């Protein structure tokens, strides 16, 4: 039994026809398709099924060529039926012959069903086809089934034949993989299966031949002799006009547009055969129609066709001599020049035609490939361009070699890419061309070549830079290069240098200049019809407008998104997803932002942009805006495992959002010490973090430093890495004011911040600023009105967890000798007492353990001396404390190193030891680092402070029972005392 792959449906039809012939009546089934498509295998399977069911199978094959005798297939059938029969000799007329053959078949069918198989009917003579028609018509009600095979497009069968036709086409991709595995005994990978399917069109015979080539180690582009012969047989039946048209189509590729083919044929150079024929350009409709009928090409719709498989195209292309190929590609290039052809297609034909414009077209194709995130393809274009540019054009070759090196670096070929970059740098130095040096330096500016950037700057200005900072030099260099390009009127150079300058000057405070530069870049791009530079300009402009707090940024975003979609370039489709995510975060559409971020990750990575860092930045922004700290911790764990350089900054911001002053200050100290190399793109987030950490610390110097850093940017927005928004700078300035009790200034700042957020439609930042505004108003003794309810409602709608202050102001203030105590809407006045002062100290540091000895003697004067004289040694002497502190410093360093290595287990163990030492130090050291005493002083302090607080609370039971109840629930006393309210309360002092 024959083994079938991918032919289940036609096999079932054939078996059904066999079944009818076995029981009732016969029929004619014609199986058609190109050579090697599996007609014979399918028919053999049906014949085997018939034999197994008890039928008599009579098979015959037609003969190719004029030497075959008449009625040859039927001669074979009759001989198998009755070797002694002489009907072909005794019959006097065709009718007598037809009737005699039919009578014998009918007689046999009444004994047992008959299945007649006639192979290759495309070679049958006219007489044999007439006899076939007679037998089918006159044996229709007998148990006779006739199965014929023929190659579609190569036979002219009588139209009167009533038949069921099964047209076989190529196998599908999965079926090709199965056939390759069955042929070779090896499982091919997906890429190989795809390549074999593309080349063979799924023709089983061709697939088997290609599979054996692969198994034998031969390249797949080799055309086996058997396959070539099969294709040549099909091509040999074409007219000269059709064949020459298909040769021109073969130059265009597997698929081609009819219009381009017609133009290409019309421009053909007309070299002698084999070559591209002249004079065929009168039209391609008729030749293409004949090729379709011959099953050599297939219509794709919309005026396009494709070869049924690459083997047909390659056979035709191989017929062209070298001159014919060059002429064909030149004609194709000219024909495509008037269409919206892909740059890669133009570059391909230009390269093979060896025309002068080939290098320029190859470089344009490389840029297009980079915009499609196809860097491997771009490498090929750069290499071919280098191959064609003469050695005498050294400056041009240097620029191409630099681009090749950078692209090789991006695809991970660091060694080869590094060699190409170094060679380009050496050539630029040797040529000593200031413009070339500047061009190369600006391309390498962000990749760690500071010395070369300074050298290019010195050569351009013929002197030292005003600043030795690599960033400053890069900024100066980009400005000088742009001026040089403007003066020369070189739009190509100007477009590049404007883009380089936009990158070089990016930082908070330069948004207005960047808007102007982006507008100029857009003008240059429009003049040069440069889609990529135009899209870059639109993206930069939208981001800069957002930083300026200009509502026009929304329209700018939409303009970019429309143009990016129209371009179809993956680089800008990726950028469009980033902008959509940024906009969703800005407006508080957090679920949409998360979905967009995942889609962005699926699109791949932009050049020099880490997809992981991009996602972490976006998702941490969403998590922190919504107060989802578990989600933030999971993201930080991913960053820690990947050793992200931005981890300390993001971890610090997360700690600050939690209200973890100690954690935030630890990260701030490390970052300010220069232990972490912050990218310029992180500057907005760094400014935000400085303000948050300083505010938590309430340290005057830190607050002042953070205020001075933010001051130049008031009125603008923090936009980190152009990816996410970190709020209006007024918000963070107001946070610093609130931390220092400047409630009126804070209220003004938060008001400006929420109004700026409302102008941009940023609901999350409006909610946050208004929540802080309510706190500032309450602290200033003002009624926030409906503000708290509005903020709570909108925060719930957005899924944000916002800390809201109590509506009634809580006051614990000493005015002269009288305390004003306001809580839960009730106010009481008490005379000054030590217990009230103790409570005030504890309430000023919620969640902090304060030793009773410090509450007993906050001033540390004569009373402290007397207390020490009462006896007791220091808990730790000075040497012990010094040793503790040295060990703590070592532990901090070891924790840092373990964190960098990603050793979380060691970090946990070291941190546990650190906490234990800190606990011991806290027990031994009081305010100002003074040693605590063992023995009588501590016990005396515990008793005295506890009694003072209890007495005060008893007084409050009568004067302010709600406050007394709150303090009893929140105050703990003993050797150390603590104020820990169940919910945060803002007290006015």
UniProtKB/TrEMBL annotation:
Matching InterPro entries: AAA_16 (IPR041664), Apc5_dom (IPR026000), P-loop_NTPase (IPR027417)
Keyword Cell division: no
Alphabetic keyword roster: ATP-binding, Nucleotide-binding
Keyword Membrane included in the entry's annotation: no
GO CC terms: cytoplasm
GO function term, MF aspect, one: adenylate cyclase activity
Ranges for domain Anaphase-promoting complex subunit: 403-447, 483-541
Domain of life of the native organism: Bacteria
Domain Orc1-like AAA ATPase: 4-147
UniProt protein name: ATPase
Species of origin: Nonomuraea endophytica
Organism classification: Bacteria, Bacillati, Actinomycetota, Actinomycetes, Streptosporangiales
């Amino acid at each position: 039994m024959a083994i079938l792959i991918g032919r289940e449906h036609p096999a079932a039809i054939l078996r059904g026809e066999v079944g009818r012939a076995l029981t009732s009546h016969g029929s004619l089934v014609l199986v058609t398709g190109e050579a090697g498509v599996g007609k014979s295998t399918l028919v053999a399977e049906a014949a085997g099924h018939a034999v197994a069911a008890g039928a008599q199978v009579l098979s015959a094959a037609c003969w190719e060529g004029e030497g075959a005798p008449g009625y040859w297939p039927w001669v074979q059938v009759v001989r198998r039926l009755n070797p002694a029969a002489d009907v072909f000799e005794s019959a006097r007329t065709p009718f007598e012959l037809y009737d005699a053959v039919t009578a014998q078949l009918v007689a046999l069918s009444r004994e047992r069903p008959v299945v007649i198989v006639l192979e290759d009917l495309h070679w049958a003579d006219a007489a044999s086809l007439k006899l076939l028609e007679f037998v089918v018509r006159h044996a229709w009600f007998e148990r006779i089934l006739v199965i014929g095979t023929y190659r579609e497009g190569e036979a002219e069968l009588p139209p009167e034949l009533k038949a069921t036709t099964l047209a076989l086409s190529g196998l599908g991709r999965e079926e090709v993989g199965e056939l390759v595995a069955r042929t070779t005994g090896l499982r091919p990978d997906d890429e190989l299966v795809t390549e074999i399917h593309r080349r063979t069109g799924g023709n089983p015979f061709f697939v088997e031949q290609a599979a054996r080539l692969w198994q034998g180690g031969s390249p797949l582009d080799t055309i086996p002799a058997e396959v070539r012969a099969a294709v040549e047989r099909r091509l040999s039946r074409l007219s000269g006009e059709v064949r020459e048209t298909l040769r021109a189509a073969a130059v265009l590729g597997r698929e081609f547009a009819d219009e381009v083919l017609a133009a290409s044929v019309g421009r053909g150079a007309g070299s002698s055969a084999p070559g591209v024929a002249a004079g065929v350009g009168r039209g391609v409709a008729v030749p293409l129609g004949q090729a379709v009928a011959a099953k050599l090409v297939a219509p794709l719709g919309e005026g396009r066709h494709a070869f049924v498989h690459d083997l047909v195209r390659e056979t035709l292309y191989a017929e062209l001599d070298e001159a014919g190929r060059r002429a064909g590609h030149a004609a194709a290039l000219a024909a495509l020049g008037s269409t919206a052809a892909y740059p890669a297609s133009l570059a391909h034909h230009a390269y093979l035609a060896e025309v002068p414009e080939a290098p320029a077209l190859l470089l344009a194709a490389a840029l297009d490939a980079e915009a499609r995130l196809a860097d491997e393809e771009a490498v090929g274009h750069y290499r071919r361009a280098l191959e064609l540019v003469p050695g005498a054009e050294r400056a041009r070759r240097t620029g191409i070699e630099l681009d090749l090196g950078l692209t090789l670096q991006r695809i991970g070929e660091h060694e080869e890419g590094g060699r190409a970059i170094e060679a380009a740098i050496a050539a630029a130095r040797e040529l000593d061309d200031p413009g070339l040096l500047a061009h190369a330096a600006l391309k390498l500016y962000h990749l760690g070549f500071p010395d070369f950037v300074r050298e290019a700057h010195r050569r351009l200005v013929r002197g030292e830079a005003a600043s030795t900072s690599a960033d400053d030099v890069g900024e100066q260099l980009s400005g000088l290069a742009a001026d040089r390009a403007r003066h020369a009127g070189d739009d190509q150079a100007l477009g590049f240098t404007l883009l380089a300058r936009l990158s070089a000057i990016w930082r908070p405070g330069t948004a207005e200049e960047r808007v102007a530069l982006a507008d100029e870049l857009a003008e240059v791009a429009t003049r040069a019809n440069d889609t990529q530079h135009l899209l870059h300009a639109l993206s930069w402009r939208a981001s800069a407008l957002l930083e300026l707090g200009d509502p026009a940024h929304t329209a700018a975003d939409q303009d970019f998104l429309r143009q990016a979609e129209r371009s179809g370039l993956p680089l800008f489709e990726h950028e469009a997803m980033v902008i959509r995510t940024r906009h969703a975060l800005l407006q508080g559409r957090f679920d949409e932002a998360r979905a967009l971020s995942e889609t962005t990750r699926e699109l791949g990575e932009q050049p020099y942009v880490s997809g992981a860092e991009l996602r972490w930045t976006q998702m941490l922004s969403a998590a922190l805006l919504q107060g989802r700290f578990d989600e933030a911790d999971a993201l930080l764990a991913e960053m820690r495992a990947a050793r992200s350089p931005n981890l300390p900054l993001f971890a610090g911001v997360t700690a600050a959002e939690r209200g973890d002053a100690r954690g935030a200050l630890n990260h701030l100290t490390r970052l300010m010490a220069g232990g972490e190399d912050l990218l310029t793109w992180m500057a907005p987030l760094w400014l935000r973090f400085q303000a948050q950490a300083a505010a938590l610390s309430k340290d005057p110097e830190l607050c002042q430093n953070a205020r001075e850093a933010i001051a130049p940017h008031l009125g603008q927005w923090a936009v980190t890495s152009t990816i996410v928004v970190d709020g209006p700078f007024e918000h963070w300035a107001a946070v610093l004011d609130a931390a220092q009790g400047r409630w009126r200034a804070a209220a003004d700042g938060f008001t400006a911040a929420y109004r700026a957020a409302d102008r941009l439609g940023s609901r999350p930042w409006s909610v946050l600023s208004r929540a802080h505004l309510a706190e500032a108003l309450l602290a200033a003794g003002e009624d926030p009105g409906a503000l708290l309810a509005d903020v709570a409602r909108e925060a719930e709608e957005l899924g944000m967890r916002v800390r809201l202050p109590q509506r009634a102001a809580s006051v614990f203030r000493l005015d002269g000798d009288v305390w004003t105590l306001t809580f839960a809407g009730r106010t009481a006045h008490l005379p000054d007492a030590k217990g009230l002062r103790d409570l005030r100290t504890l309430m000023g540091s919620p969640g902090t353990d304060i030793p009773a000895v410090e509450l007993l003697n906050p001033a540390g004067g004569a009373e402290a001396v007397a207390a020490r004289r009462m006896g007791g040694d220091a808990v730790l002497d000075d040497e012990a404390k010094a040793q503790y502190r040295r060990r703590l410093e070592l532990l901090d360093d070891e924790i840092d190193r373990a964190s960098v290595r990603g050793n979380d287990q060691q970090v946990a163990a070291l941190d546990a030891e650190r906490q234990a030492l800190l606990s011991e130090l806290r027990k031994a050291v009081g305010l100002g680092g003074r040693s605590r005493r063992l023995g009588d002083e501590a016990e005396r302090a515990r008793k005295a402070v506890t009694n003072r607080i209890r007495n005060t609370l008893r007084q409050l039971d009568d004067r302010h029972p709600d406050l007394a109840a709150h303090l009893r629930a929140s105050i703990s006393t003993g050797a150390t005392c603590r104020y820990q309210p169940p919910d945060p309360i803002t007290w006015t002092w």
